[in-house]
Each structure stands twice: as structure tokens, then as C-alpha cells.
Specification:
Structural class: alpha+beta
GO molecular function: transferase activity
CATH class of the largest domain: Mainly Alpha
CATH architecture of the largest domain: Up-down Bundle
Organism: Bradyrhizobium australiense
Helix content: 40-55%
Number of helices: 7
Mean pLDDT: 97
Strand content: 5-15%
Radius of gyration: 17 Å
Order of helices and strands: EHEHEEHHHHH
Number of domains: 2
Number of strands: 4
Distance between the termini: 29 Å
Protein name: Glutathione S-transferase family protein
Low-confidence stretches: none
Keywords: Transferase
Length: 196
């Protein structure tokens, strides 16, 4: 399997982390989005949306969208609850991550990390919504060790991608003790060094 991605992208890293956690063999193919490498004719044949991550299976089939990819890769594994309701709660967090977390925390990080904007240049509404996302996570993680209860699921891996580097988007985690505890535990689970 080939994984096309950018190691600075939380969406791409979650695919790498799932592959590594499940010992799935893959070849990582670095793609630089800022250089337009997702807009080449060759890449657009793999993913017509021109986005990473994208995986190419041994039989040539391709799959895009990070949470769809990790959901496919982890099927039948310990990362997806066997209980149908718990699995649906995991999916609830996966959908929420792309709609209510990533558009704010990841976008602010992109503007500061990649485009070198200052925190004062960020859209105040995106900052407000990013903190609202962190508050929702804090509320849940004060009640349960992980997002879907007592065991790590794809929801935790998915949300770790941008939450662990939220500070690079100007977000301060000082008031989010449960989120900070959770970040540390998921990093240990995945054998990752602490985020810089």
C-alpha cells in the first residue's frame, strides 16, 4: 500500500499512526501541498479532489479523506469498538472532528505554521470556534479517560492530529487539564514523542 501525505498534516499523520499501530505495511510518499504537488495531472488521477492523505492499495484502488481511510484500515481491529453503539459514538466524534474541530484549529494552525501569520491576524470567529471545540473535548475527557469511554479508539487518534499541535495555531491549552492528560496518554499509546 502507498500512503501519499505530508508529515506536517494532522490528517495525514492519523493515517500513518493507524498503520504503525496496526503494523500495516506501507510506503510513505511525501507530497508537498504548498508546491502544488496535489494539483499535478498524475496526482489528480489518484484523487480528483487533489488532497492528501490518499492511499493506493496494491490492486490500484484509491481512497481519500483521512477518517474514511483510517476507518477502512482499522476494520476488525481493537481501534473500533465491537459494540455497535460505541462504534457509532466513535463515528460521531470522527464526523465532528472534520466539521467542528479541524476547520478552526487546523485552519488557524495552517495560517500561523505555513503562512507565518501572527495570532492577531487570525479570524476571531475561527479562534472562538476552536476554543469551543477544545471545551467540548475537555468536558468529555473530564468524564471518561478517552473520547468513547475507557479504551482508545479511532476517535482519539483522529482528534490527536491537530489537538496536540493546537498551540501552533495560537490556542493555549493551560485551562484544559483533561485534554492535556489525554494528549499525553494517546502519544504514549502511539509511541510518539511529545509534540514540540
Amino acid at each position: 500500500m502507498k500512503v501519499y501525505g505530508d508529515t506536517n498534516s494532522g490528517n495525514c499523520l492519523k493515517v500513518k499512526w493507524v498503520c504503525d499501530q496496526l503494523a500495516l505495511p506501507y510506503t510513505w510518499i511525501a507530497v508537498d501541498t504548498l508546491k502544488g504537488e496535489t494539483r499535478t495531472a498524475e496526482f489528480l488521477k489518484l484523487n480528483g479532489a487533489g488532497q492528501v492523505p490518499t492511499i493506493e492499495l496494491d490492486d490500484g484502488r484509491t481512497l481519500a479523506q483521512s477518517n474514511a481511510i483510517i476507518r477502512y484500515l482499522a476494520r476488525g481491529s481493537h481501534l473500533i469498538p465491537s459494540d455497535a453503539f460505541a462504534a457509532a459514538k466513535m463515528d460521531e466524534w470522527l464526523f465532528w472532528e472534520q466539521y467542528s474541530h479541524e476547520p478552526y484549529i487546523a485552519v488557524c494552525r495552517f495560517q500561523m505554521f505555513y503562512l507565518k501569520k501572527s495570532a492577531s491576524d487570525l479570524d476571531p470567529d475561527k479562534v472562538k470556534r476552536g476554543y469551543a471545540a477544545l471545551a467540548r473535548m475537555e468536558h468529555q475527557l473530564a468524564l471518561t479517560p478517552f473520547l468513547v469511554g475507557n479504551t482508545v479508539t479511532l476517535a482519539d487518534i483522529s482528534l490527536l492530529g491537530y489537538t496536540r499541535v493546537a498551540h501552533e495555531g495560537g490556542f493555549h491549552l493551560d485551562g484544559y487539564a483533561a485534554v492535556r492528560r489525554w494528549i499525553s496518554e494517546i502519544e504514549k499509546f502511539l509511541a510518539l514523542p511529545p509534540a514540540r
